[in-house]
Amino acid sequence: MAFISNTSSVSSVMLKVLFALIPAIAIYQLYFGPAILVELALASITAILAETLILRVRRLPVMPFLMDGSALVTAWLLALSMPPLAPWWLIVIATLFAIIIAKHLYGGLGNNLFNPAMVGYAVMLISFPAHMTQWPAVEGLAHAHLSFGETLRFIFGGDLPASMRLDALTMATPLDTLRTQLLLGRPVQDISAMPVFGYIGGKGSELIALAYLAGGTYLLQQRIITWHIPAAFIGSLALLAFGFNAFDSARYVAPWFHLATSSAMLGAFFIATDPVSGATTPKGKIIFGASIGALVYVIRTWGGYPDGVAFAVLIMNMCVPLIDAFTQPRVFGHDKKKP
Amino acid sequence: MEIPCVFHEAHLMRQLHKFHGGVHSPQHKQESTARPIAAARLPTRLVVPMHQHIGNRAKPLVQVGDTVLKGQMIGQADGYVSCAVHAPTSGVVTAIEMATVPHPSGLPDLCITIAPDGAERWVERTPLDYRAMNPSELRNRLRDLGLAGLGGAVFPSHAKLNPGKQPKVPTLILNGAECEPWITCDDMLMRERAAEIVAGAKIMQHMLGSDEVLIGIEDNKPEALAAMRAACAGTAFEVIAVPTIYPGGGAKQLTKVLLGKEPPAGGRSTDIGVQVFNIATSYSLARAVLHGEPLISRIVTVTGNVERPQNFEVLLGTPVKELVALAGKPRSDTHGYIMGGPMMGFTLPADHAPVVKATNCLIASSPALFPPSPPALPCIRCTQCAQACPVGLQPQDLYWFARGREFGKAQEYDLFDCIECGCCDYVCPSHIPLVQYYRFAKSEIWAREREKNQADVARERHEFRETRLERAEKERAEKLAAKTQGSKTPASGDTDAKQAAIQAAIERAKLKRAGVVPQNVENLPAERLKEIEEIEARRIKLKEAMEKQNETWPD
């Protein structure tokens, strides 16, 4: 057994992931108001309390496991996936579900089959579909603004200032807009001229996507993640989008629009790369990432939901043991790979 | 027509290859290379283990009270894969007993203790005319000179200096990579005694019939590279700087780096026409063949928590405590000594354990230098280990199987290809002692196989006994039948035919008895049978005890 080790630890890994999310949070806050900060705080506090409670119940040492930072990563990813103007209990329930059921009931850190944040998100999407659409309108398009205090009052009490109505504050996401307008029979070219769209993707959200890309690049450089999953995810999503767009550009949106969605970049660099629930062999990671990318395209284009990262990730989580078993790399001095 | 220019300095052109994984850890080599190799003082006593090599333990040739000369054989090689052991100095044998040896198990082993007389009287040394000698005889002489691989594996060198069924081993690699942190004994030996290393390589080349000789040295040793290049001037040997990465000095990894070929798993490097020796082995071979000196000393790096880290030429059998004292007064926070490097080494069971052929480095360890590992967290499957594994294994899966005692699965995932280099331990963010899990799984599998073999033997014995009893019963019945038939029909029928049938039956029985039925166990007097049983019982008991002892050994 080695007497020396490099300086990495689970908490340093998790801290780097949190650090990599900060640029995206900054831009999010800039374009969509302070609600995301409230959401992040709610999720973090809930996650820490839930983690402490369940560690106590499981008679595990609280501090070492709490300090590993994995609960905070789950909380932040969840907060960044959920609509921030939803009532407070939505993110609280989602976080509780992620930490207690998706993580600890499966054995805790390192043992969960499914990505906890995506389990929390999917449960909320199915259980409270209406609340899951309360996305804040992007800066410049909203008909009204909430101050930080008003945001708090709305999230916790559902009270809006007298003159405001909810639909003045919220807005369909670019992906949702695209979906509904396509169903109405409008061509992609007309839809993308709508004010909710920016340069190549959604207004504001394309910049968040860029920030996720930057954060992901940092994680790659720090060797926290490897290139396989993000590259395969982005590659397969882009390839499918490119193919269908080339086939009929009026019905299928351009590949760069898909890539410039914040969910695609968050998914490719931060969610599908969750080591615990993802594939581990190099080839397996490519299959895993490419399959998620393809499923995201399929769900977005033909499925019942405007976005599909959560479902795509969860479906592929189920396939991980099989993928890993069939993609074992060649071992030194062995002739060929095993089946 | 233009003749293409032949590039003479082939080593400049050599295409190097990469092996998967590996780690870059802090080197800590400067500490012990600032001073030249010093001869270690003659210790107050020498404790020479009989088992310093892979293979069978040497058999003691001396008695307590015997006077021995420096270089005199005191332990004889036992079998082909074994090595002789010699008196490192002249003196008197004071004990032949079980004593502490440098082994991670902490179990004692047979050692010969010598009280030096200080006269350093040598045994007669005869250089070997290796070019004229019969190869087999030469190998036997090398075995009797105690040569074993000094890189750490201590495999008897004579057994590797044998092309076997092939007419030759085309490529000879000298390993001067010395990839593990802290260790500098090979570096210093190459800097100071390059000529003799090269002389040894020539002997190896002769014995293996090699066409090319490659000397791989990591590029963090510019002085050693320069010295070896100078010593190789005028030969066709290639001195090649290889990238510094742990475990680039593993024989298989170095082969891959230099040749792009991988020795087959479970096979030998000679299967691909390659043989690899450590440069210190080459040096010792030159001393043995050209000067008739058996292997009685080696270079040992003494470093870590000591005042003056340095390399010493040390007589085998020198107690560690006396050796490290030469590097300055022991510091108060020293809490043990690591033999080998910090990646693959182990903590010595006691500081009076002797230096042996495998001792390349002694690191005085302190909590400041080697802080204890923080408590292990669960595996998060981050695959840092898989990215670091030089064998291309999936350590996170092997860990899972070892933990769950799914040994069959572990074997399926090539557990036995693990070289226990410690790269996975080094990078694991959860600080899981992965190699310990693999050792545990390996030893469990070995134990199970032993159990299975024992059960097989027992079953065979049982089945043999059953058939023997059955046959005896049958024969008795036949005899009875023959007798009753003979008495029943005395007068009727053809007597000749009957006589012939009886004769045939007797012949058959005779044949059967001579052929298959065990001899000498029937019709023995009762006390003799009892004696055999007692011997058998003693034997089984001994065997069980041996088995038990083996099981407590970690590897």
Terminal CA distance of chain B reads 64 Å
What strand order characterises the main sheet of chain B? 1-14-13-17-15-16
Q: Measured on Cα atoms, how large is the radius of gyration of chain B?
A: 30 Å
How many alpha or pi helices of chain A?
16
**Looking at the structure, what is the overall shape of chain B?**
globular
Largest interface (CB within 8 Å) is between:
A-B, 36 and 56 residues
Instruction: Estimate the mean pLDDT confidence of chain B.
Output: 90
Q: What is the name of the CATH class of the domain at 19-41 and 144-327 in chain B?
A: Alpha Beta
How many runs of DSSP E, i.e. beta strands of chain A? 0
Q: Structural class of the secondary elements of chain A?
A: mainly alpha
Helix content of chain A: 55-70%
Distance between the termini of chain A: 32 Å
Which key features would you list for this structure?
heterodimer, A: 339 residues, mainly alpha, 2 domains, globular, B: 555 residues, alpha/beta, Rossmann fold, 6-stranded mixed beta sheet, 4-stranded antiparallel beta sheet, 16 helices, 17 strands, 38% helix, disordered N terminus
Explain what this protein looks like in three dimensions.
The complex is a heterodimer of chains A (339) and B (555). Chain A is mainly α. Helix content of chain A is 62%, strand content 0%. Chain A folds into two domains: 1-171, no CATH class; 174-328, no CATH class. Chain A has 16 helices and no strands. In chain A, helix 5 packs across helix 6 and helix 11 runs parallel beside helix 14. The radius of gyration of chain A is 20 Å and the shape is globular. In chain B, the strands form four sheets. A six-stranded mixed β-sheet of chain B has the order 1-14-13-17-15-16. In chain B, strands 2-8-7-4 form a four-stranded antiparallel β-sheet, with no helix packed on it. The longest helix of chain B is centred in the last third of the chain and has 55 residues, at 434-488. Mean pLDDT of chain B is 90; it is low at 1-11. Chains A and B meet through helix 1 of A and helix 10 and helix 13 of B.
